[in-house]
Amino acid sequence: MHIFMWFWTVNVMKQVEKGKLGYLKYRRTTYGLYSLVGFVIMFCFMMMSIMMYASLKAWPTIVGIIAILPTAKFFVQYLMIPKKSLITSEELKELNDLAHPGKIYADLFITASEKGYHIPCVYIDDAENIIAYTPDLKADKDKFRSGVTNFLNYYNYSAVVTLVNDIDALKSKIEFVKLGKQSGATGDGSDSSSGTDGKHANEVFEKLSIMCI
Predict the structure, then answer these.
(1) Within a 13 Å sphere around the CA of 76, how many CA atoms are in the beta-carbon half?
(2) Given phi > 0 = left and psi -120 to 50 = alpha, else beta, which region is 115?
(3) Please, what is the average pLDDT of the chain?
């Protein structure tokens, strides 16, 4: 099963990197395929058990049950991932232009404080300012902030984390940070608009991505 999954993922589907537009669609499709293959394998072993022993109380059934264990994990993640992205390529391009030299990462599903957050895009700069956007009005901003902050603290990052529910609010926050109005509150106490190339932002995202599906 795993060989088939690897072949499909590498040779048939176009792989999308985490943080790029289209990643969630790619991931959901992949997990859906994995789940389908797992369920088919379980069904085949159960049918083998019935045909060979006229009973489900035989070794093929046990093998089928073992095969379904990783499948259940894939299926749960398949159900968790949103069906479509909630940001367009035009909006993403506008945000990238606005964020420079900061970075915009798209199509994320972040688990923080035991809750899942659909994050269509997040801004990260070299001063460790993190501004995430979710359309979910019920999202717990405090739990998201504490969950991400505590996780990054483990890697010695002093990130300033913000969650907003409106894309215009995201743009305003990015402009606010770039103007240096929060320079005293950034992770290293420096002006986030001065002399950055986005390299450190990529390093921060690399750690943040561990929290993502």
Answers:
(1) 8
(2) beta
(3) 83
State how far Cα 184 lies from the chain centre: 30
Q: Which residues contact 206 (CB under 8 A, 6 or more apart)?
A: none
Q: pLDDT for 141-159, tens place per residue?
A: 999 999 999 999 999 999 9
Starting at the edge strand found earlier in the chain, the sheet holding 160-164 runs 103-112, 115-124, 129-133, 160-164
Which amino acid does the sequence have at 130?
I
Q: If you ran DSSP here, which 8-state letter would residue 211 be given?
A: G
CA 109 centroid distance within chain: 4
Here the tokens at position 95 are 């945000």
Angle between helices 89-99 and 167-178 (to 10 degrees): 20
**Does the pLDDT of residue 8 top 80, yes or no?**
no
CA distance 14 to 26: 8
Q: Cite the DSSP H helix spans in the chain.
A: 2-7, 23-53, 59-80, 89-99, 141-153, 167-178, 199-208
Residue 165 CA to chain centroid, in angstroms?
A: 17
Contact 78, 31 (CB under 8 A): yes
- pLDDT tens for residues 23-68? 988 888 888 988 888 888 888 888 888 888 888 888 888 888 887 8
Distance separating alpha carbons of residues 105 and 123, to the nearest angstrom: 7
For residue 196, the model assigns a pLDDT of 59
pTM of the model: 0.76
Please state whether beta strands 103-112 and 115-124 pair in parallel, antiparallel, or not at all (unpaired): antiparallel
